[in-house]
Amino acid sequence: MEIKVLGPLTARENGVSVVPTAAKPRQILSLLALQSDRVVTVATLMEEIWGEDIPRSAATTLQTYILQLRRKIAAALDGDPARQAKDVLITQHGGYLLQVQPGQVDAHEFSQLTASGRAAHEAGDHYAASDLLGRALKMWQGSALVDVRIGTVLELEVLRMEEDRMAALERRIDADLIIGRHTEIVPELRVLVARHPMHENFCAQLMTALHRSGGAWRALEAYQRLRVTLVDELGLEPSARLQRLHQAVLSADPALDLPVPASG
Asked: Is residue 229 included in any domain, yes or no?
């Protein structure tokens, strides 16, 4: 089964969609996919679906939703003698487990790629880091589970995935700056700064890219826009780190220039 959650929910077995149309079964499938090969307890599934207002009929209703999912899976298996729906969506003591093969859930593949990219970055292989993180980020097709109703459990999962996405993006841009792609990433950084006007690291990355591209005055403009936003919205000045970067741009500090690789 191939499952995608980094955008709209899709799940296919033998090329056939097993995603239900009803909202609550979609929530169940999403949570089982994110926790695939691990048991999701009945209590966790109930919390996701009903929150604190769990009805008396919850256990029976949950079993009905599981049956609906198994029917979708069974139809996609199309009489495969080697596999049955109950072998894919497995009943375990106290919960359910969705059995998938490695690499069949895009969120898991994203995590593996970002871990490899982070390791490459920390090892100083910035070309590999940029490539691995770029491949991971291209897997996203919008906000995670954008077409699924989100309960309290999935909300935390989505928040974690979105934070991991942001961290991977920042790290990929850092790698691109190190390997001299400052001019190429300016348009992307302008969009990110516009979308996240109080995000200091994106602003710092944009300032660095603009400075290295010969646009020091544009870097200073970016700083001033962030400062005005922070003061107006929060009553705060930019961090000491960003203020130091601002002073470095003002003084044309050579430390801001792209390091020249050692010869020989």
From this structure: yes
Measured CA to CA in angstroms, residue 22 lies from 26, 41, 144, 239 at distances of 6, 21, 18, 47
Last residue of a domain, one of 49, 79, 98: 98
Considering the domain boundaries, does residue 108 fall inside one?
Answer: no
State the Cα–Cα distance between residues 192 and 164, nearest whole angstrom: 16
Contact 3, 125 (CB under 8 A): no
Instruction: Decide if 89 contacts 70 (C-beta within 8 A).
Output: yes
> Is residue 95 helix, strand or coil?
strand
Nearest-angstrom CA–CA distance, 136 and 133: 5
Domain end point (choices 77, 98, 119): 98
- Whether 215 is in a domain gets the answer yes
Q: Which residue has the tokens 């307890």?
A: 41
Joined together, the tokens standing for residue 229 give: 């936003």
The type of residue at 40 is V
Residue-number span of the structural domain to which 31 is assigned: 2-98
SS3 125: coil
- Per the structure block, which two tokens stand in for 41? 């307890």
pLDDT in tens, 131-162: 999 999 999 999 999 999 999 999 999 999 99
Whole-number pLDDT of residue 36: 86
State the total domains in the chain. 2
Rounded-to-integer distance, Cα 230 and Cα 215, Å: 23
